Amino acid sequence: MRWVIRIIGHILIVAVLTIVTQIGGIAWLLALLIRRRLLAFLVIYTALSIGAAFIAPQFGRQPLRCFGDAALTSASPIYCALNRHYVTPEMADVANDLAGHMAARFPGAQTLTLDGSFPFFDGFPLAPHLSHDDGEKLDLAFYYADNRPPSTIGYFAFEDGATNCRPVWPTLRWDMGWLKPLWREATFDAERTKAALEWLAADPRVSKILLEPHLKISLGLTSPKIRFQGCLAARHDDHIHFQL
Question: Residue ranges per domain, the chain?
Fold first, then answer.
């Protein structure tokens, strides 16, 4: 009976690691062949993640920048550690062009990326998103006065406003109120955020932008590309979602 429980446990670990990182499940299976399992997993996972950056172009993906003070960089290293920072070359061009525009218009401004896609295979879901499965979707953090969002991961620090959505279940519209005490104080930069949204809306490569209606109204945005994602999807008053 004990060995059955262990097998089920390993199956669950592989499933969770695959859902969260795409390649973590493979790393765990390989680590099972080695005595010092946890250390082996970390080494194998790191090696596979580095290798993914070189193999991803064969699947039409490329990694976005993870660190540094460049105009475009990840809001947190966690997205790179989990292999969630991959996009198509065209999406990378749009993101870099936006970042260049924002840095030129607002000297010192950084554009911070959140979830993109996994490195391999179209149609592989990037939980908990309902899309982000083809490298043509990317989330960006809102802009703040000191270039750092309140949340350490860029998500769940909501700019609250009026909504017509009623509590229903099941839903991905999480308020995550219990996290609020963990977030730092930060001043939302409405001017920069509006400028970025207007630039994206004007770019012919961009087909859709998701944003909460109250922000579209308060920022004075009118483009039909800027849409409400619906009451069952995750809130979009903590980040910008756009897609090709």
Answer: 2-58, 60-243
From residue 135, give the alpha-carbon distance in Å to each of 60, 79, 93, 154: 8, 14, 12, 19
Alpha carbon distance 165, 135 (integer Å): 29
Looking at domain 60-243, its CATH class is alpha beta
- pTM of the predicted protein model: 0.93
Long-range contacts of 119-127 (CB under 8 A, 24+ apart): 119/22, 119/23, 119/52, 119/53, 119/55, 119/56, 119/59, 119/61, 119/63, 119/83, 119/86, 120/22, 120/23, 120/52, 120/55, 120/56, 120/59, 120/61, 121/59, 124/22, 126/84, 127/19, 127/20
The pLDDT value given to residue 232: 86
CA 37 to chain centre: 30
86, 64 Cβ separation under 8 angstroms: yes
